[in-house]
């Protein structure tokens, strides 16, 4: 019997290079874990190559004498490549990135893994994507470039790089080489094609697959608290870094205190990052006893944690040159899935909170506007806040479930394999000699 007659799906293998990929029992990004799980019924098996040290958790997970460690995490194959531990954003982090890049190119670090039919490189930093492109060439298979951040544009907009500098020039050459080398480009930002196409890249090679959520993890959340429960609890969980604009949130809480709302509103800030000590100091200077700073948690703990919130708050810095291409933050989809209203401080090409009817929007980098929005949300009738939460769940279910996103991803993988097969047949066997 043929494969078509039996209904069997031929399994194909994809390598995913994501320096910071993590499973649900860790803190950090789980995008590729969830996508890999959902790819299996679609005929694809993924191996995720990640680093042994996570920027969110610097504990070493691979012994010095191992080189790498293989793990099966709920059916998904991870290979952790040993990289040196580091703290902060200095030279130690660069050495960590380069160690991952260099070791991924050594055959001993990929041995024992089935040969890929596609290699995916995720630009959590450019070196990971470069390694993926070179591995794809070595194995003569398609390369899919996943663009998470627009390097170096993100660093320029944040003031970490100067336009016209030698480093910027080199990064732009590297960026263009990656775009040209890719058989397909997967972008997380909805308008990223407007940045990429002017570089001479055909628009039909650029595909949008945003971040998502495993909605089944949120199926047993407790309902919102009643209007008599005090204080009203806002929650933020995620990175505490310079890119997150959290100083604005602390200042907004100070404004609410001056308005006499300190006893009625509390803020729980959960996570870690380089700016956390500064935020704690700001809070103390403002005398804000209604803010609690809590440690980062495992990804699988987030649904139960989120159920303890009355609302969420998220701040995005005013970087119009960058956010004109949109946003796609992991934590935002967790907020939506939790079924609570959201206050977002944002000016960007897209606004999932507004699109979903899931909350209120404040101006970015404007603590007064943010305080106004938070105060307005608290004053709304409980029924109206509950309706916002229901709209949030509906929106994320229709647009950001990993089952939906994985199908789009699998279609891209199937397409690039089919295209490469047609090209090889057209060129003949000499092409591969």
Automatic annotation (TrEMBL):
<keyword id="KW-0808">Transferase</keyword>
<protein>
    <submittedName>
        <fullName>Glycosyl transferase</fullName>
    </submittedName>
</protein>
<dbReference type="GO" id="GO:0016757">
    <property type="term" value="F:glycosyltransferase activity"/>
</dbReference>
<feature type="domain" description="Glycosyltransferase subfamily 4-like N-terminal">
    <location>
        <begin position="33"/>
        <end position="212"/>
    </location>
</feature>
<dbReference type="Pfam" id="PF13692">
    <property type="entry name" value="Glyco_trans_1_4"/>
</dbReference>
<dbReference type="InterPro" id="IPR028098">
    <property type="entry name" value="Glyco_trans_4-like_N"/>
</dbReference>
<dbReference type="Pfam" id="PF13579">
    <property type="entry name" value="Glyco_trans_4_4"/>
</dbReference>
